[in-house]
Amino acid sequence: ESSLLALLSGVAAHVGQFLSRRRADDLALELTRTRDDFLALVGHELRTPLTSIVSHTELLLTDGELSGENRLLLESVDRNANALRAIVTDLLDLAGLESGDISLDLGPVDLSEIVSASTAALAPVAEANDVKIQVDAPRVLSLRGDPVRLRQLADELIANAVKYSPDGGDVGVRLEREGDLAALTVTDGGLGIPEDERPRVFQRFFRSSAGTARGISGTGLGLPLARAIVERHGGTIQVQHANPGTSMTVSLPLDGPGSSPGK
Ligand code: ADP
């Protein structure tokens, strides 16, 4: 009977474990939902007043009679309000893409064109950081996707590669077709991400110690947003160490979401 007792207490222990795990999972899910609702609510409430601040400031800046000092003050208001608005937009985009509230506007997209537009737009920032962007892409690489979101994705990855290369260097952007997939790889020779922190870079608000120690500013929303865009397209995104920097690889099914067996 002692073995029966052992068996019973084993069962009881497992049931207890199961129940507490269930409870912890439910709680985690509920907390995640509460957090997402909260962020979405705050985002909506902030967006309207911010839009009004930005548009009124920009109107005031057109006044030719402004004193130099007041112009500087207004320009600072404008910059900060725009920065705040960008954060709110990222928060709302992230919440909407993850929940499915934002739908993709799917159509034929030339990813080569998107990558070269993104690179061209970021060239001034790269130049200011003494970074050279090298692009290696086919003339055309067509897939089914949302052009606005894919541009946002390319911007995010290339901007990070530039931003986290504080001492200059090369950023490589490679685009190629691999069977039914488009593979986009952005490699830099920058700060790199410590190995134990690498799995966390796609969590919202996470910022690696390597960047914060150098005083590089950011919100920790860019990579979660990048991942949400990739996943909504049925693709995958991975971070790798690229001695000495970082390499981000995105794989997207050419046929668009719903076509990859993994989804
Ligand atoms: P942030 O606004 O802080 O740049 P991201 O979500 O884009 O937020 O990235 C999260 C963190 O991952 C960054 O704070 C940075 O520490 C790290 N990171 C992202 N891209 C790179 C990169 N190319 N090189 C080094 N660190 C990077």
From TrEMBL:
Domain of life: Bacteria
Domain Histidine kinase: 41-256
Region (Disordered): 244-263
Subcellular location: Cell membrane
Name recorded for this polypeptide: histidine kinase
Full-protein positions shown: 302 to 564 of 564
